[in-house]
Amino acid sequence: MYINGEWLSDRPTFAVTNPATGEALGAVPDCSDADIDQAIAAAHSAFDSWKKTTAYERSRLLYRAWELMIQRKQALAELMTKEQGKPLKASLNEVQYGADFLQWFAEQAKRIQGETIPSARENQRFLVHRVPVGVVGAITPWNYPISMITRKLAPALAAGCTVILKPAESTPLCARAMMEIFAEAGFPAGVVNAITVQQPARVGEAFCRDPRVRKLTFTGSTEVGCQLNADAARHMKRVSMELGGHAPAIVFPDADPVHAAKGLSLVKFLNGGQACISPNRIYVHEDHREAFVAELVSRAERLQAGNGLDSTTSLGPLIDQRALDKVNRQVKDAVAKGATLETGGDRLLNGELARGCFYAPTVLSGVTPEMAIYREETFGPVAPVISYRDGDDVLAMANDTAYGLAAYVYTDRLSTAHRAFEALNFGIIGINDINPTSAAAPFGGMKTSGLGREGAEEGIDEYLETKLGGFAI
Ligand code: NAD
């Protein structure tokens, strides 16, 4: 735990394990209620002076943190692979993506601008300032254990807010490595704090209840997000919510099915399917079904499951047994209701793999709305294929979900691309593009996928209040 510029470790601890091997990686303190209070007090008292720093000073510190991240890219990526399981190449990509937020918001700090508004009265002037919200409580998930931290902390710090981070209990070591970077970069004591906890509800409740915390930013499941949003509403707190997803992907008749299968296999099996933007319903025109499924299966079967530190590994483990059970339940349910298991469909137990929670890359075809996988987020390496025909309203089928985070479209026709982009009710839409994300672009969901956006200009707005001055002169 890092509170008020000090590392606190003389507490009861909880263990952190490598999901690929089951080996213990270390232990971190389990914070007490007094620690939570101390972290909030530190952020609260640091806010007064931090909000008065110049944008140029905040920018300089964010740049310094960015430099340190880039210098430590390899070490951070290795730690991430050990703690979270993703292949090293994916960890390196994530460290770069995470660092991008520090760089982008280091610049954006200098562009927090107000405005003057003409008044209808000759002797009146309106002046609008943009001021930091105050103390921010930030709760992050384990699936992207570094970039989800910088995606919140970089804009919050750039805006002049102080922060208390609560990382996921399965990936606190990545959070600790990031706190070391913020400390070394020279952020003053109390500006950035982190608390680790095994039972996270206590922290969520404190962030929502304590009047010193003015904003809650959360990335995680829709279930927990709804609970926190309700609690925060009782105290009229600002919230940002990045929640679950159930992304549709549509392969139109004019698309190349092999090219589409290549792209969708890359994004489906990315991070073992443990991504909020992972495709969870792949709608393929019936003319392309055979070619598409054949290519997807061949790519799934070529994936090499294993320890992400091995250079041959292209698929890591699931985070824990609970995740494994959920994936298995959805696959078995789909097969029992008539889906065809094209490949995979079971836990991998051969050799070293038995030590971790590995699930075989799986392709299901003939998936229908009665199956749990058609509605529930999977968070595992399972690609459900649904074929549709001429006359089916595939855009309506894709929209038939409570979620609204990401969607994908493959088409060679500009008019279809535009029609789909306009019709799909999702916050992020990849048109022949499987990576529609960047620090410079607004990321976030509609419907039960959340509130607010991260990245881009909108990302810093989440941490700013608007203050109007009316001046009689
Ligand atoms: P989760 O909701 O269980 O946990 C997320 C975080 O919330 C963790 O830090 C956890 O400790 C904390 N938490 C859990 N219960 C809490 C409570 N009662 N009070 C306060 N904090 C609590 O989710 P998860 O399984 O760790 O993460 C996966 C989920 O996150 C998926 O649904 C995924 O789609 C979503 N996600 C969304 C985005 C996005 O940008 N929209 C990005 C990554 C992950």
Automatic annotation (TrEMBL):
Occurrences of domain Aldehyde dehydrogenase (ranges): 10-467
Any Pfam family: Aldedh
Principal EC category: oxidoreductase
Alphabetized SUPFAM superfamilies for the sequence: ALDH-like
GO MF annotations, alphabetized: oxidoreductase activity
Enzyme Commission number(s) of this protein: 1.2.1.-
Protein origin, superkingdom: Bacteria
Matches recorded under Gene3D superfamilies: Aldehyde Dehydrogenase, Chain A, domain 1, Aldehyde Dehydrogenase, Chain A, domain 2
The entry's keywords: Oxidoreductase
Protein family membership: Belongs to the aldehyde dehydrogenase family.
Name listed for the protein in its UniProt record: NAD-dependent succinate-semialdehyde dehydrogenase
Source organism of this protein record: Marinobacter xestospongiae
Lineage, highest ranks first: Bacteria, Pseudomonadati, Pseudomonadota, Gammaproteobacteria, Pseudomonadales
